[in-house]
Design goal:
Helix content is 35%, strand content 24%. By secondary structure, it is α+β, with helices and mostly antiparallel strands. The chain folds into two domains: 5-147, 60s Ribosomal Protein L30, Chain: A, CATH 3.30.1330; 161-331, Alpha-Beta Complex (Phosphoribosyl-aminoimidazole Synthetase, Chain A, domain 2). The strands form three sheets. Strands 8-10-7-11-9-12-13 form a seven-stranded mixed β-sheet. It has a four-stranded mixed β-sheet with strand order 3-6-4-5. Strands 1-2 form a two-stranded antiparallel ribbon. β12 and β13 form a beta hairpin. The chain is globular, with a radius of gyration of 21 Å. The chain binds adenosine-5'-diphosphate (ADP), thiamine diphosphate (TPP) and magnesium ion (3 copies). One magnesium ion binds next to loops. It comes from Paenibacillus lutrae. Pfam families: AIRS, AIRS_C. ATP binds at residues 110, 127-128, 154, 229. Mg(2+) 4 binds at residues 34, 49, 80.
């Protein structure tokens, strides 16, 4: 790479957004000083999160195009802001690349980062650039805001609440399984049959549910909220633990990504595994009082958003359980993606 980090930073970030545009988004001092300075709206509290994408762990050449790596790194962070019922505002990007990296590849990763940021009105205000000895590591920090005292936590679920999700599950894991099995190169994705293309899209270009999170926050009716990065079972376990409750999920009510069953059949896989344990769907999982679900459904329908009731909150004794279609109930282990599992 014929660059030092200063020229690389300029190459990646210069000219992406006009001064004027950054100012209207609240940026007082952006890229180029020791730290960024940015405004928060009056009466709002800061909501901050960071997540990393590591080559070989979160992506491989056969699973993600360069632009997708950037898009998904930004999207997964925005999803955590959505899961607090907050609005994403600013992002910082920490990039580590091997010394011999292809600058054009890094630039494409940045195209994806900025594409996702623009989609959600997020301004990139800084970051850090270093070398790594092998593999790309991309860490995004997103700063958002929420009405003071109004953040939606994992800890507010109450027995008797309905449990809901904001959209279909299992698509990302199915898309990943399909890409790994087929090993097709990204240039061929455009020619995929539409069902597979949708699943691949769910894996490579997840769309965080910011509008749903903000709507849930505004209504004041949502008791607990979490986003699904590690899988439904794992995130349900997080809500149960944080709230000191149990959750009973009905398998029949789980919304499946379109084309999931056909893809599972083709790959001789179990679609329920993808739905429960696959992860990276970035839908929101929440609870609200049963009696308020009608009002929530109406508000979601008016906003063109979807909402699916998938179960109910119980007392803590039962833990997290799954009701099978035949009526039997079994424990739903808090199994999901584990970075340190032996494999
Ligand atoms: N290395 C770390 N140091 C401090 N806090 C961390 C670290 N890693 C994760 N956390 C915090 O632990 C909590 C759970 O993290 P995580 O499971 O990654 O959440 P999510 O799945 O929503 O990204 C978050 O509050 C996160 O900020
Ligand atoms: C090549 C490849 N193998 C496996 C996966 C699946 N995968 C990797 S990380 C992960 C969970 C989500 O990532 P994590 O870093 O745990 O995010 P967080 O829970 O902190 O939001 C999953 C399902 C993948 N995306 N790509
Ligand atoms: Mg995390
Ligand atoms: Mg989360
Ligand atoms: Mg995780």
């Amino acid at each position: 790479m014929e660059q030092d980090e200063f020229s690389l930073i300029r190459l990646l970030t210069a000219g992406r957004e006009s001064e004027e545009e950054l100012r209207t988004r609240g940026v007082v001092t952006g890229i180029g000083d020791d730290a960024a300075v940015a405004a928060l709206s009056p009466g709002m509290q800061l909501v901050a999160t960071c997540d990393t994408m590591t080559e070989g762990v979160h992506f491989l050449p056969v699973t993600m195009r360069d632009e997708d790596i950037g898009f998904k790194a930004m999207a997964s962070n925005i999803s955590d802001i959505a899961a607090m019922g907050a609005r994403p505002r600013y992002a910082l990007i920490a990039l580590s690349v091997p010394p011999g990296a292809d600058v054009e590849q890094i630039r494409r990763i940045y195209d994806g980062l900025y594409e996702c940021a623009a989609l959600y009105g997020v301004a990139v205000i800084g970051g850090d650039t270093t070398a790594t000895r092998s593999g790309i590591v991309l860490t995004v920090t997103v700063l958002g805001e929420v009405a003071a005292g109004g953040a939606l936590l994992r800890s507010g679920a109450k027995p008797g609440d309905a449990v809901f999700v904001t959209g279909p599950l299992g698509g990302s894991a199915a898309g990943l399984a399909w890409l790994l099995r087929r090993g097709v190169n990204a240039a061929q994705w455009g020619t995929l049959p539409s069902a597979e293309a949708e699943l691949v899209r769910a894996h490579t270009r997840p769309l965080p549910q910011v509008a749903a999170g903000e709507l849930l926050q505004r209504t004041g009716l949502c008791h607990a909220l979490n986003d699904i990065s590690d899988g439904l079972a794992s995130e349900a376990g997080e809500i149960a633990e944080a709230s000191g409750v149990g959750l009973l999920i009905a398998e029949e009510l789980l919304p499946q990504a379109e084309g999931l069953a056909a893809c599972a059949e083709e790959l001789a896989a179990d679609p329920l595994e993808w739905v429960l344990y696959g992860g990276e769907d970035y839908q929101l999982l929440g609870t609200a009082q049963e009696a308020d679900m009608g009002a929530l459904r109406e508000a979601f329908a008016q906003g063109g958003l979807s909402l699916h009731v998938i179960g109910r909150v119980t007392d803590a004794d039962g833990g997290v359980r799954l009701q099978r279609p035949d009526g039997t109930v079994q424990p739903l282990p808090k199994r999901g993606y584990n970075h340190f599992a032996a494999n």
